[in-house]
Design brief:
heterodimer; A: mainly beta; 5-stranded antiparallel beta sheet; 11 strands; B: mainly beta; 7-stranded mixed beta sheet; 4-stranded antiparallel beta sheet; about 0% helix
Chain lengths: ~110, ~120
């Protein structure tokens, strides 16, 4: 049973524009959410996280929004750059110490 | 900082043999390490949680006798795939959590191919 879902397997965006990646979850016990970036044949790299007490967290070009009532979070990347082309995984856990449940990933392609 | 290494990065073995994968936290101590596997174009699936000095906790459906995990020190965890079969071919990734807490740091992964 997939508790974390990324319904868009791929996203193509023009360089300089905004990339919006979406993630939905079903487990109301999840309290801590993360986004990871992954290149082929490499491990995921941590991007940004948010705890349930916040609805927004920003770090440079990356902003994560959390809507607890809708059990939905999104990652905004602006402006998108060619180096952002990768697979992005959403992950959730019951707390910052807990084990992570990953979504299925969204392949982002940033075109010139 | 927060570098996690895995060795080997790739391995090809014959069916029936055992393969050991090492996961090391290079510049921090990790009381907890996690082992994941990823099939092509799929999510990372947690296999087990490894705590230093104690037995690993396996996720439902993961055979603990097939996937042996040892976490003998604060910087090293090993995953041994015993009697490997072609269906065990996958990308195995470990992660480590700093002893002080916080997010997990992932290793680069190990590609296992069983012929």
């Amino acid at each position: 049973d997939q508790q974390v879902k990324q319904n868009s397997p791929s996203l193509s965006v023009q360089e300089g524009r905004i990339s919006i990646l979406n993630c939905d979850y079903t487990n109301s016990m999840f309290d801590y959410f993360l986004w990871y970036k992954k290149y082929p044949a490499e491990g995921p790299t941590f991007l940004i996280s948010i705890s349930s007490i916040k609805d927004k967290n920003e770090d440079g070009r990356f902003t994560v929004f959390l809507n607890k009532s809708a059990k939905h979070l999104s990652l905004h990347i602006v402006p998108s750059q060619p180096g952002d082309s990768a697979v992005y995984f959403c992950a959730a856990s019951a707390n910052s110490w807990g084990k992570l449940q990953f979504g299925s990933g969204t392949q982002v392609v940033v075109t010139p | 900082g927060a570098v996690v290494s895995q060795h080997p990065s790739w391995v090809i073995c014959k069916s029936g043999t055992s393969v050991k994968i090492e996961c090391r936290s290079l510049d921090f101590q990790a009381t907890t390490m996690f082992w994941y596997r990823q099939f092509p174009k799929q999510s990372l699936m947690l296999m087990a949680t490894s705590n230093e000095g104690s037995k690993a906790t396996y996720e439902q459906g993961v055979e603990k006798d097939k996937f042996l995990i040892n976490h003998a020190s604060l910087t090293l965890s090993t995953l041994t795939v015993t009697s490997a079969h072609p269906e065990d071919s996958s990308f195995y990734i470990c992660s480590a959590r700093d002893i002080r807490g916080g997010e997990q740091f992932f290793g680069p992964g190990t590609r296992l191919t069983v012929l």
